[in-house]
Amino acid sequence: MEAVIIGGGASGIACAIRLKQNMPSCGVTVLEQLDEPCKKLYATGNGRCNITNTAAGGYELTSSFFSSIGLVLRESNEGRVYPYSNQAASVVNILLGACEKLGVKIVTDANVYKAEKIGEQFNVFSKRGIFVCDALVLATGGKAQSALGSNGSGYKLAKSFNHTVTELSPALVQLTSSNKNCRALKGIRTKCGLSIDINGERKASSFGELLFTDYGISGIVTMDLSKNVSDVRLKNKTERCIAVIDFIPDMSEDELLKHINSFGSLEGLLPAKLCSILSRQAEGSSEKIAKYAKNWKIIITGTKGYDYAQITAGGVSNGELGEYNDSRLTEGLYIVGELTDNQFRCGGFNLDYAFSSGIAAADGITKVYDKN
Questions:
Q1: How many CB atoms lie within 10 A of CB 321?
Q2: In degrees to the nearest 10, what's the CA dihedral of 122, 125, 128, 131?
Q3: Residue 221: which residues within 8 A CB-CB, separation 6 or more?
Q4: Which terminus in the chain has less CB density within 10 A, N or C?
């Protein structure tokens, strides 16, 4: 039995290792378009590699998989799980070491431009030749950070097998704004409530750290909500997006007004520069300062784009995939990781899905093809 995995990132390498663990006699080939696999992993978690989260759906599967190849994990704050070494390089070394020990064949500089199924087998056409297999896994990643291997080519391959790809946009990404006050507040961080309103309708809300920049807003809370912002629809002017900031979610507007009346400002609660801008906008009115502090609105003009995004929003429709990320349209085809329409918040959830979906696909292939 032969399996080909297109993409040597988190999903693809995890899938390859699990397949060889399950079926040692299975021939497993990974086709990676870059000069080496796992490049994107080096950049995750600020170089520490936030592998999973204790609250992630695939936590047990992911953590047991890494235990099986000798990587020790440890939990940090908010359930984030990292390698014990706190080094992404350790994760890459363990993964590639397992590939070598198990006999996974990794072919680099192998850009795939076509794949087809003829009878019971797949033909995969790449710049390194044609590969024939019984099971094919698409693990190419999305469009985020193309320099690290995700150039969107997987969507074309999925469509060639008649799969639907939902609207794509950058996610876990900074947001741009035309509001000049963002530039004035550049470098200021604040923990606040953030909501995204699209055409006057509230789409999502969260709480966390927000960072003002010269182009707009960043920070974890911004990244988490960015998947609700569509560059395409904003550019086409079919949507209008407003970010609504509650700088002091722990206090009501009335409580803030009492504080201002007692102490003259909100400087005991917020940075002085922010207080100055709120006061100027409110023309000195205590009532308006309290209102703006709870309901500060800025126009969002778009995202910083795929080069800055951690993941891609949208992808192959989940309704077309089974329990093991198997295609419901083409037997023997599996689609995993960022290529699918699955996006999660910061904290290890997206990388967990990358690993766990690749592992699940390997288990699905084993269930179908293992004759022992």
A1: 23
A2: 10
A3: 192, 194, 206, 207, 208, 209, 210
A4: C
Mean pLDDT, rounded, of the chain: 96
Structure tokens at 117: 């199924």
Q: Which residues pair with 116 in a beta bridge?
A: 123
pLDDT at 43: 83
Q: What is the pLDDT averaged over residues 266-290?
A: 95
Checking phi first, is residue 200 left (phi over 0); if not, alpha (psi -120 to 50) or beta?
A: left
**Residue bearing tokens 């350790």:** 90
3-state SS of the chain is CEEEEECCCHHHHHHHHHHHHHCCCCEEEEECCCCCCCHHHHCHHHHCCCCEECCCCCHHHHHHHHHHCCCCEEECHHHEEEECCCCHHHHHHHHHHHHHHHCCEEECCCCEEEEEEECCEEEEEECCEEEEECEEEECCCCCCCHHHCCCCHHHHHHHHCCCCECCCEEECCCEEECCHHHHHCCCCEEEEEEEEEECCEEEEEEEEEEEECCCEEECHHHHHHHHHCCHHHHHCCCCCEEEEEECCCCCCHHHHHHHHHHHCCCCCCCCHHHHHHHHHHCCCCHHHHHHHHHCEEEEEEEECCCCCCCEEECCECHHHECCCCEECCCCCEEECHHHECCCCCCCCHHHHHHHHHHHHHHHHHHHHHCCC
Rg (CA), the chain: 24
pLDDT at 372: 57
Give per-residue pLDDT as tens, 323-370.
999 999 999 999 999 999 999 999 999 999 999 999 999 999 999 998
Q: Taking a C-beta distance cutoff of 8 angstroms, is the pair 132, 2 a contact?
A: yes
